[in-house]
User: Fold these one by one.
Assistant:
Number 1:
Amino acid sequence: MADPTSSALESSADDKLLALVDRSEQFEEALLMCFPSVGTLLSIDSDQCRLAASACHLCIEHASVARAAFTMDAPNSASAVLRLQYEALLRAAWLVYVANPAQISKLGQDLTQKAELAAKSLPGASEMLAKVLEAAPQGLTAHLAEFNQYSRHALNSYVHSGIHPLRRVREGFPEEMALQLIRISNGLMHMAYRMLATLTGSQRRMNKVTLLYEQFTDCCPMKPAA
């Protein structure tokens, strides 16, 4: 059994992990430079667009927290946050491409007990994904489907304190797994920024954000365009 007072990550991971986190921060800074300093300006001022933008910002916030957790030697917590990050991006996609006016209204209500109860009838992750895969562009759905197939179910274990985190606490967290999860988180973050760019209505910004990952393939899961 691993000593609970020792590092959760393998000792050799520190330098590589910190370098990847630093590179990830550079990636986000470059993404932010694609947007006005005043923040995201939506092309359509509607509840639907505002809610979708909020979900994108939540995805981006989770990415920042996941990176911080890895640097704090809390990889199991980071893994749980990555699962939340995915669902924030999925919610944004669902709001943009699938949600009907009644569903949008439920999420746009002021926070009251009645509104909270009404929101519980909204689709869960599996139903949202199924609908998004039918309606959203392939450039977005491919990433959502891949994460769902290879990562979502295992990461659920971290949210619910299941077999995966309990084993990792005892045996340590593999270096390569930590590095790959950071890259996956960066990929989700990039998709959130792409969706924000779309919500601004600027084709120039959309193109700039979409292609930016080609300068940061070392910290992303995606391959550069041919």
Number 2:
Amino acid sequence: MEFSKILLDKISYYLRERNEKISVAESVTSGLVQLAFSQMPSAERFFEGGITAYTIDQKVRHLYIDFEKAQSVNRVSRSITDEMPLNIAKLFKTEWSIATTGYSTPVRESDNDIFAFYAISYKGHIILSEKIELHTLTRSLDAQSYFTECVLSALRCEVKHLKLFL
């Protein structure tokens, strides 16, 4: 799996320049966001780590998502996604965090749609929360790769342009 070198270099540069750290909570991207961070120059200076929590039980156990709430939406919703980065940031003690949830294959629970929610948080606040939708014929790995690139592109913009948030 290859990622845009320019994109990875920029994220690495901005996080190091700001002297801030990041953590990741993934579901639909199955560790690809963490893989991308591991490929960034000097990742050990800003990437604290992450969790790939694919099931409701793991999201509840490790990311402190409410079980009933997660069960009511089959573990995938914007509100679940918005909780995940806030909780992973607390767990890893980072200023920045990213979370992804969604479906990379058409299944009954998603009404046969392929989509992902992602959220980016900074210092305990969600600063971006979006949904990405793809054609139902998109192959699973292609969907996961696309979701990852979108999230990383959005992060690069946020880290570069964020002024004083609070």
Number 3:
Amino acid sequence: MGIFEAARVVPRVAAPISLPLTIVSGFLGSGKTTLVNRLLSDPGGRRIAVLVNDFAAVNIDEELIRFQSEDAIGLTNGCACCSINGDLVHAIQRLVERKEPPDAIVLEASGLADPRGIAQIALANPAIRLDAILTLVDCETFPERIKDERTRPTMLAQLSAADIVVMSKSDLIEDRRDVIKGLIESSVPGRTVIKAMHGNIPADVVLGVNASPSPAFGCSVADHYTLFASTTRAWSTPIDRDIITRALRELPQNIIRAKGIFCFKDDERRRFVYQRAGKRESLEAVPEPSSIAHHGSRLVLIGFSEQWDEAEVSRLIP
């Protein structure tokens, strides 16, 4: 569904009451979901609706958002930037047509998305206006990713689209913060750069920006989607903690992002979230979300297509 179809489908309303859209962008594992959940926990008196786009067929991020809010809409199995697809257009349409529409829409983009492609929806109709594009940078992995020719184009596209660049996980590189900031500023001069730990940014800083959109919006990295591959796993009954954690430790290095929600046999009353970005990983207990089956587990793995070995992944995690 293209930009003209988006303009036709989304209802037209007067510009003064158009809904502001904030796009939260950033490469895989940069901390987008943490920041969005932080906004939901302290929205500054605003009613926020969240749209969540994921590269994989299983939208783990949507489930993590639902820990904080039931008002989350998932857009799965592809980058919304590659085309203004029907799911995105109709999700926004439903929000606009509500009797009590939200005060703001926050769209968490896929870690592989070019936010300029998504921004077209805000330019297509006065019912929606682009408030701002935030791009998160994982300070720990940024120097490596920005030098890698496979990831550099996507990261530069995300950074160049940003009104605000957020230095995420800056607590992990305390002695190199100025170096990372300088690297960001040299890559995309003129951007506002702020530091954040655990997504802790006041809502008033990132909502209500009213940035002026560029007339040159459009997805600029045509082949970024084909550079990466993903696979998903799902279990309907509790799984063995030792077996899954051992398998996760043995995953090949070309898997640059992994995220999962698990129910373990030895602790069936709680859910555990697994996160891996680069060499860093964590497994933490979280409150049980009412919208997810109690005993279900899900895992998403993302890596480089050229090195993808599905047989090896299946051997480790059947």
Number 4:
Amino acid sequence: MTSLVARIEAATPPGRDRAVDALRALAILGVVGGHWLVTGLVTDSGTVRGASPLTHLPHLAPVSWVFQTLAVFFLVGGRVAAGSWASARQRGVPYGRWVGGRLERLFRPVAAVLVVWALAAAGMLVAGVGDATVRALVKLVWSPLWFLLVFAALTAMTPLVARLHPLWPLVVVLHVDLVRLGLGGPRELGWTNVVAGWLVPYCLGALVARGGVRGRAGRWALLLGGAAAAVSLVLWAGYPASMVGVPGSRMSNLDPPSLAAVVFGLAQCGAALLLLGPLRRVLRRPAVWAVVAVVNLSAMTVFLWHQTAMIIVTASGSLIADGPLPGLHTVPDGAGWVLARLLWLPVFALALLMCWAAFRGYEQGGRRSGGGSLVVRGSSPERKGHARRA
């Protein structure tokens, strides 16, 4: 381990902003932890279905405020893409080559999970597993991929939106929600927010890349203003308290993104920007930086396979145990389930480590051919080579 830490430290370009890597790692791990905590698999009459403790324990909704960290991921994505595109233009790299390299790194590991689960679904159907069970499991694995499609679209739009102020898409979200929720407009109008809602943190990241929001006052304003707006919308405007989807609820803050989710995301972005300074100081320690670097090298693999890891543990438990295991197969309707689920998290992490060992090559192979690291600002070809070795 000492040798590995030393190699990572030596191979890291001096200009790499390690704190940005840390924010991405925290965002991915927050999504993973949130999914593991709020997603259960239960069996009804031989059919497996998904269930959420938030359905039975609505007072746990504030937990979703901690683990719904997608806004931070889009913030980092906008910052990195804007800086990368500016550097590519300076070097004369054409748009097609630039966007092709970034999307290849994004979708190469996606192909692996799609193929594996297509084969798994076919195998289960041939073996006689019910259609409803297969649909529930495949949906659990594939449904998080929606955000990658949005992220890919925004990445491709970077030359057009890199200088767009985040206030403009925020105004779009405000008016869409006013029409669809306040004036009884068509529900389909809400899908405009799928792009506009995530454009807000993405454009904020691009603004940061241009040198904006440098002062602590602006970052505190994002944190406190976004949090106050989100709380107000929940308390007085009828928005759900949960920042993730809850089965059976009348509406979701994420499907499509609501104004409450977007302003809450701004609060998270403000907190993330305030953390940059302290993170930079902490990440001067080679051992801490090595952990962050390793997570970032496999961030997509971790995201794509974390639900599969939970399914593997759940299925294995049902084969080994004589009856349903608390926190794994039981209905998530009480505090006992939550405590038991917390004890299962290390087992999920172990299963995810196995998936990572099996499939990380698809992501890292894509990075080697994609031409660059994920978060080096203004990276040169020499620095890219260092990043790939890291």
